[in-house]
TrEMBL record:
Pfam families to which the protein is assigned, alphabetical: MarR_2
Key words of the record: DNA-binding, Transcription, Transcription regulation
GO molecular function, one term: DNA binding
Chain ranges of the HTH marR-type domain: 8-135
Presence of keyword Transcription regulation: yes
InterPro entries: HTH_MarR-typ, MarR/SlyA-like, Tscrpt_reg_MarR-type_CS, WH-like_DNA-bd_sf, WH_DNA-bd_sf
Keyword Aminoacyl-tRNA synthetase in record: no
Protein name, entry field: MarR family transcriptional regulator
Length: 204
């Protein structure tokens, strides 16, 4: 017998519903869902990716829209910009102390806690399934994928840290777990393992 509960359209609708519920703005928050996404992005991205164009690619939006979101967060004192150490013509965006404190109130934390209550094998299977879906969707829409160094073909581990062939530079230990726009999967068709955090404090 055909189980209608497992049809692709029902699963897609549920995924969208969960996403909307997790990012709901009806909690007295002064930030919109897009602004929360921006704040999370600059908290997780590495130095070379914390740029307006990096966020625009991650959000799959225009540079103009991304810039407006960034300007709003700058005006609220949540992010700040400085000249890149590598290229003085470009800027790097960082969270301020106020921005990091604001992330503790991130509405996504409710979903993070719910996922944290799943069994470890459930989380592993769930993550692999979502990763395959995200990779396939990115391919259909011809948009870049983002990942971390530990799953990237440019990365060579060494002495607890590593080397990035794309940037031709040594990496600090903290850089390995950050999002990078130059990510290339080590296995075709497999998206990187995006860490699922279990505690709100891990968002800092």
């Amino acid at each position: 017998m055909n189980n209608q509960r497992q049809t692709p359209d029902r699963i897609a609708e549920l995924l969208v519903h969960v996403g909307r519920a997790a990012c709901s703005e009806d909690r007295g928050s002064s930030l919109t869902a897009a602004q929360w996404t921006c704040l999370r992005f600059f908290a997780r991205a590495n130095g070379s990716t914390r740029t307006p164009s990096g966020f625009a690619s991650f959000q799959a939006t225009t540079r103009g829209t991304a810039s407006q979101i960034i300007k709003t967060l700058e005006g609220l004192g949540l992010i700040t910009r400085q000249r890149s150490d590598r290229d003085q013509r470009s800027v790097r965006l960082d969270l301020t102390e106020t921005g990091r404190a604001t992330l503790l109130e991130d509405p996504l934390n409710d979903l993070i806690n719910v996922i944290g209550q799943l069994q470890e094998d459930e989380r592993d299977h769930f993550l692999k399934t979502l990763s395959r879906m995200a990779y396939a969707l990115a391919g259909l829409r011809d948009v870049p994928t983002f990942g971390t160094c530990q799953d990237c073909s440019h990365f060579t581990p060494a002495n607890g840290s590593g080397y990035c062939a794309c940037m031709a530079s040594e990496l600090a230990t903290d850089d390995i777990d950050q999002l990078c726009a130059s990510y290339q999967s080590t296995t075709p068709g497999v998206l990187p393992k995006m860490l699922i955090k279990g505690e709100p404090d891990d968002q800092e």
